[in-house]
Amino acid sequence: MEVVVRYLNAVSARCVLDIGANAGLYSLSLERMSGGTEREYFLFEPLAPTYEKLKKTLMINEADMTRFHLINCGMSDKKESTYFYLSGASEAAPLMPMEDEFYLKKIRVDGSYTGGDVMTKELCQVTTVDSFIDENHIEGVDFIKIEVEGNEKFVLYGANDTLERFHPFCYCELLRKHSRRFGYHPNEVISYMKELGYNTFTLHEGRLSITRHEITSYWWSDGRGMEATSQNTDYVHQTESLLADKLEELKPGAKGINGYAFNYFVWETNAHDRAQTYPVMDKYMTEGGGLDVVVLQLGENVLDASADGSTYESDYTELIQHIKEEAPNAQIITVGDFWADDTNDAVKRSAAEETGVTYVDLAEIQDDTNYEAGMGTMVEGDDGEEHEIEHSGVAKYPGDTGMKWIAKKIVEAIEK
Fold first, then answer.
1. How large is the C-alpha radius of gyration of the chain?
2. Could you report how far apart the first and last alpha carbons of the chain are, in Å?
3. Hey, what domains does the chain have and what are their CATH numbers?
4. Which of 4, 67, 129, 339 has CA 20 to 30 A from 136's CA?
5. Are 331 and 214 in contact (CB under 8 A)?
6. Pairing relation of β-strands 169-172 and 120-127?
């Protein structure tokens, strides 16, 4: 959010559209962090119960209601009355029913789940950004925040004239698990925005990685598999353990294994110039000549893989070549995605073939729930306490079984 605040203050932004405002905390935070402005906020929330919560939140926080305008309406690519679907386990309310089992479970007061299907629907009004701007004679838009559970593409389609006319800074949630329900891939949004003259970046306060994730940082430290039940059961540590058993065979005379993991999400998301992020990685290769193995497990955060003019494939190839130069004695292994993504896997496979490094394919376990951690799994945190996985997104990550499978495949590749 700090990046957004700095931008809004730098351009003296006067008008913000918060689409999918929920309780209004995003806009309230923008206002407070901006330090006293005359900026106007238009907050859109279609569901009546959530809209009432929005009004109450702004009242409690003593928001200036001459500048905070609340609109009980949703946004899409056309004006109509349509149903929104609300689950018992989440306040998220998309235009398409959520099929994830987590969203169909009602939460009791004590935090447990009833398991009952409580998906309900509510008839709401939706309009388009362009219609709203025209009808309300708004003469400029500086920032648009869109978080609408998968309908982001169609909100942007309905804002075409506004985007071309005012070219506002747009902050948009893009998740494949949500966009899939609407029949599109997030890359389509990126291509659309590029056609309108936009550059695309990813703001990461939470980072997607099967070796670490900010959402679990309060119980797991850096270097941990985010769903491993203990520190020794993520794939990094399991790989080290398996290698230790074979160390004398693989490297006679070696006294032990010194391994580490770091999240190189900045390379994934810096699509306009990934090479400029090399220094972030190179600091881990100050003694590259002594590295025996480098494992690349990248791709989940890449948004431009299928976009027109994407350099992702050539960037991946250049990354491997760079690592070869920095760590000339290391065996390089690139690992496929844990979640099925044909484009990402094709890029990695092609780059591996072109550079002569090993590719580890995870297709056999992709989207197989037997290798996911699952809801309710108990994990041991660095604090010595047990914590329950109760976030549906976290539950989709590899559990101990998935981590072990990945580790075994990496070790098999090293042995070859």
1. 24
2. 46
3. 2-83+125-195 (3.40.50.150), 214-415 (3.40.50.1110)
4. 4
5. no
6. unpaired
Overall average pLDDT of the 390-401 stretch = 78
Closest by CA position to 268, among listed 304, 230, 220: 304
**What are the backbone dihedrals phi and psi of residue 123, each rounded to the nearest 5 degrees, phi first?**
-75, 125
Residue 239 neighbours by CB under 8 Å, 6+ apart: 259, 295, 406, 407, 410, 411
Distance CA 194, CA 198 (A): 5
333: CB partners within 8 A, 6+ apart? 293, 294, 295, 296, 357, 358, 359, 360, 410, 413, 414
The residue with greater pLDDT, 285 or 401, is 401
- Indicate the pLDDT class of residue 87, thresholds 50, 70 and 90: low
In Å, what is the CA distance from 379 to each residue of 208, 232, 273, 375? 19, 12, 38, 11
pTM: 0.53
For residues 414 and 416, give the distance between their C-alpha atoms in angstroms, rounded to a whole number. Answer: 5
How many helices (H) does the chain have, and how many strands (E)? Answer: 16, 13
Q: What is the pLDDT of residue 132?
A: 97
DSSP string, 147-177: --TT-HHHHHHTTHHHHHHH--EEEE---HH
Record the tokens describing residue 360, joined without a space. Answer: 């580890």
